[in-house]
DNA sequence: GGCTCGTAGTGGTCCGACCACCTTGCTGGT
DNA sequence: ACCAGCAAGGTGGTCGGACCACTACGAGCC
């Protein structure tokens, strides 16, 4: 049926990428499964090993495949975390107005996630959130504050019960992204305000009040968003 | 200053990818700018052309670079559309519970985008929306309906004024993603319901009522979401 | 002056060789 | 019989060179 008479569109590497994606989409390749060797795959698709390697490399950076040196090539679990790792690249390379747009998206998703978390969070998860909140308030090292800040929001996103959303928020809070924005933000003595906002979020979670949680999270991200907007304006 | 003494971590290709990303992040490579040739780049980074090509291919699929056969390699405009093209891959390869999570995210973003659009849409944009709405109701060809359905939502997302959000929604409505879900959904005589929902969205936009628009959009996506959730359950 | 066509330079493809690493199974001892 | 250690085969990773396909630009012609 599907013989290998090349349809002659695009580069051979691009075609190879599509073929492998199709194989996974059709279920012929399951998550975690091991693929044939680069050499065999090249023969099967009728292309050179070089071109096949480029296709594999492309699918690797997309989080679809995983190459283990000396062992073989495997399909990832195709979970949100695997596939959305590249989302961080977007955040890292965005500048100016695009950063504001990303923060607007984060505000929307983070407020919803926090609201969901207020309704679903378990005592254990809440304890974890409190741990990071306390650690954040107990130090003055910006590096450590940032780390606990990230963990604080990550824990909340996880409690919302949507792994895909958590993965996107993770990308929107990636280390370099936050570092770039917060460097300037925190210099204006925003520490106190940040602590108040985090406390408000925690209060809403502890009270299991979704609407209060949504408002607190939206205000928290919105503060940074407005600050950044002002930085770009005049 | 920064000599090329290899830090010896990861594969040389991975290192090359990071170096180029860093160059763009630091502003040493501007959007639209032409890069040196593959051969020159390979020499500069002290690696073979093969490895350099893999790095370039990886950055190409990420939407960061663009290779023009016979001309050269260029940095893309680094706009939302360029970088978020890969988001469609996520939607295409997701299955089962993950599809529901993606629809939940789409519901959140689409409802917000529609609300924003209700406040910001121009008469011209509204006319465009109406055109697709009418075309959608004037045919029975599922293929054509789907196309106008996509355009309908795309126009609204554009009117919301956040290009990044529009690009994400575009990925969440990618052709294969919609086709897979809607195939089953529409078979259950959901056409009439869909038309009513689209009409409600349009009514809210024309009335410039953000809250009504938010509710209508959330209900629209929510219907599909609930249907899909039911499909997976028992 | 405008058009055509050749040519230099670019990315695209292929090949073959070697290296670094992991896996496996055999070997040798206890 | 069991296990530690070693050896070989297989795998992805890297390299260099060659050739092809396409684009861009300028010399030459009309």
Describe the structure.
The structure is a homodimer of 234-residue chains. With 234 residues, chain A is mainly α. The first copy, chain A, folds into 2 domains: 67 residues, Orthogonal Bundle (Arc Repressor Mutant, subunit A); 150 residues, Four Helix Bundle (Hemerythrin (Met), subunit A). Chain A contains 12 helices and 2 strands; from the N terminus they run H-H-H-E-E-H-H-H-H-H-H-H-H-H. Chain A has a two-stranded antiparallel sheet with strand order 1-2. Chain A starts with 11 loop residues before the first helix and ends with a helix. Chain A binds a DNA duplex (30 and 30 nucleotides) through helix 3.
Q: What kind of oligomer do you see?
A: homodimer
Would you identify the CATH architecture of the largest domain in chain A? Up-down Bundle
Shape call of chain A: elongated
Largest beta sheet of chain A, briefly?
2 strands, antiparallel
């Amino acid at each position: 049926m599907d013989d290998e008479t090349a349809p002659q569109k695009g580069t051979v590497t691009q075609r190879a990428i599509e073929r492998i994606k199709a194989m996974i989409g059709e279920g012929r390749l399951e998550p975690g499964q091991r693929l044939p060797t680069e050499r065999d795959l090249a023969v099967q698709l009728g292309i050179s090993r070089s071109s096949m390697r480029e296709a594999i490399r492309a699918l690797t950076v997309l989080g679809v495949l995983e190459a283990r040196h000396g062992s073989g090539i495997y399909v990832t679990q195709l979970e949100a975390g695997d596939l959305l790792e590249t989302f961080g690249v977007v955040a890292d390379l965005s500048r100016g107005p695009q950063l504001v747009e990303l923060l607007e998206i984060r505000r929307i998703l983070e407020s919803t996630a926090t609201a969901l978390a207020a309704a679903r969070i378990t005592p254990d998860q809440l304890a974890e959130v409190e741990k990071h909140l306390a650690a954040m308030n107990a130090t003055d090292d910006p590096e450590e504050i940032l780390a606990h800040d990230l963990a604080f929001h990550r824990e909340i996103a996880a409690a919302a019960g949507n792994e895909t959303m958590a993965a996107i928020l993770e990308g929107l809070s990636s280390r370099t992204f936050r570092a770039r924005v917060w460097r300037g933000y925190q210099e204006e003595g925003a520490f106190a305000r940040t602590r108040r906002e985090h406390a408000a979020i925690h209060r809403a979670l502890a009270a299991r009040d979704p609407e209060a949680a949504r408002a607190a999270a939206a205000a928290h991200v919105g503060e940074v968003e407005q600050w950044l907007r002002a930085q770009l304006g005049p």
